Amino acid sequence: QVILTSLGPRLGVGKINGKSAQGLFEKKESRRQSFDVFEGIAFLPVHGSLIQRHSFLSAESGLMSYGEIGEAFHAAMDDVSVRAVYLDVDSPGGEVAGLFDLVDSMSARVGEKPIHAHINELSASAAYAITTVADHISIPRTGMAGSVGVIVIHQEFSRMLDSEGVTVNILRAGGRKADFNQYEKLSDTAREDVQADVERIREIFVQTVARNRGIGPDNVRETEAALVAAPAALEMDLVDEIMSAEEAAAH
Prior knowledge:
The protein has helices at 2-11, 21-32, 66-78, 99-107, 126-131, 158-163, 188-213, 217-221, 230-235, 245-249; strands at 15-16, 19-20, 36-38, 41-51, 63-65, 84-94, 115-124, 136-139, 144-146, 227-229, 241-242. It is elongated and about 65 Å long. The protein is built from 10 helices and 11 strands. Helix 4 (99-107) links the parallel strand 6 (84-94) and strand 7 (115-124). By secondary structure, it is of the alpha/beta class.
């Protein structure tokens, strides 16, 4: 139904279950950009896997974009009827691209209104970076937080292709073109370059968390990107308090 909503007009399908395909698409778009306000508090979700840009399938696939989060956050901060912002976080993290620009833009508005983040029940990696913009972070006793690190996974299928009798010929101009393709073994130079970049981005992450949480960068590095349970997260100063979602909403 989601696919037909977008492609229906091109395929000559005007209605889905008696409803206009375009109408359904517009309804999904408007719902995606909204947030709930209760007694002057804007409740903003940070849910699912996080990506730089969304498509019409993102929400249906459990994805959320940095653009969506940023638009909702800044709209809430600009809304005179909103006196505080509550981030409801339940995410394993996501892409690096666009993340730190989003976090910086949110951090620049700290102090304008109270911002509370509740980890409900997972805030890892990119999601934790967003969580740190809050003045106060709470987590339930069964929650998990952290993973202040960066990961790149390179898959190589050359031996599998050899066993299947498949030869892939790569013609290139420039010795390092297609450095990270999946059909050849990763070269030492390519491995060193990507490792250096991973370390560079990790340091951006470390400095961001240290700034937002008011703790030393060394303390953040010493977590070694571990994803930790609530008591350890509190001990590491990754969160401020252990409480349930109901208690956090009433905080």
